[in-house]
Amino acid sequence: MSSVLVLQGDLSADLPHTAQRFGQTFSGSRARIAADTAVLDDAALRAEWEAAKLDYAVLSDRPFSGFGLLASDMDSTLINIECIDEIANFVGLKDQIAEITERAMQGGMDFAQSLHQRVALLEGVPESALEHVWENVLRLNAGAETLLAECRRNGLKTLLVSGGFTYFTERLKHKLGLDYAYANELEIKNGYLTGRVLGRVVDAQAKAELLAQHREDLGLSAEQTLAVGDGANDIPMFRAATFGIAYRAKAAAQHAADLRINHNGLEAVRGWFA
């Protein structure tokens, strides 16, 4: 399979080194150019693309319709927030919990341990806090609806798999027409959070296992899956997929990913492929 250099972003920017290297000028928001990975050894090219805020990669030239499953993280990937941090904000604990969240997403502590520690701090928070976050704070990240529409158009199933909470994943599944959704269930009694999570924690390993399970259930090959996420707990899911795609991600996830989106929206997941 031939390989291509893909550039995504504002290609009307001044790109003299790129024009000279490939013998042409570019426009629009995406370019696909026959090239091999050696092109990435050119430091001047990479510096020019970074300065122009372009996302770039060399990858096999294959159609998006050749994939069958897209798995996505939720918090800070499909949506603009870490839900647990915003629930904590309702009771003045955002800074304390956000610091733990950040350490977990950077890979500095075990995810399940961090989840139990953070949820315990939410004991006594009214269920109405979750509704407040859903209605007034949570928003889709740029390009999310475009990406999901492209998945439907090209026949890809969509799997939302999150270390967050079912309260939000189930609503997103219904709102966006996602095929599958998994997350952690908060225990709620008499309208208040108990500070506990019910059942098995959806951690890094569970994400990878759910991707593999649905790949097998759909009869897909190992070459037909995509995974997108932003944190260290997405790395096993990246490794279980054909392509792991880091979206505005933490350093550990950036390093582990096959493709990186740092400047565009989620529409760029589709843009890597023909």
Automatic annotation (TrEMBL):
It is an enzyme of class 3 (hydrolase). Keywords: Amino-acid biosynthesis, Hydrolase, Magnesium, Metal-binding, Serine biosynthesis. CDD domains: HAD_PSP. Its cofactor is Mg(2+). It comes from the Bacteria. The active site is at D73 (nucleophile), D75 (proton donor). The keyword rRNA processing does not apply. Belongs to the HAD-like hydrolase superfamily. SerB family. NCBIfam families: HAD-SF-IB, serB. This is Phosphoserine phosphatase.
